[in-house]
Amino acid sequence: MNKITVAAALIAFGFATSAQASSLGRPCTTAPESQWLSLDQLRAKAEAQGYTVGKAKIAKACGEFYAVDKTGKQVELFLDPTSGVVIGTK
To answer: pTM here?
Structure first.
């Protein structure tokens, strides 16, 4: 997949999920915010695991990322904000 195709897929995915975006339903950590990584650090951790990340936020003590995985599948990632470990996907 070329970069333009990936960018178009991420934009379309963002529009398609923005109205129905939902969280994991539980916190990813109980650690205080002072121990959390920045959103940019979490994005780098997700990208290091092979994801192409689009829209990102931290909500309900989880890093939430709209991304495309190595196979080209669109996913919503939930990362522990203290470590960048993937807690779940949708």
So the answer is: 0.73
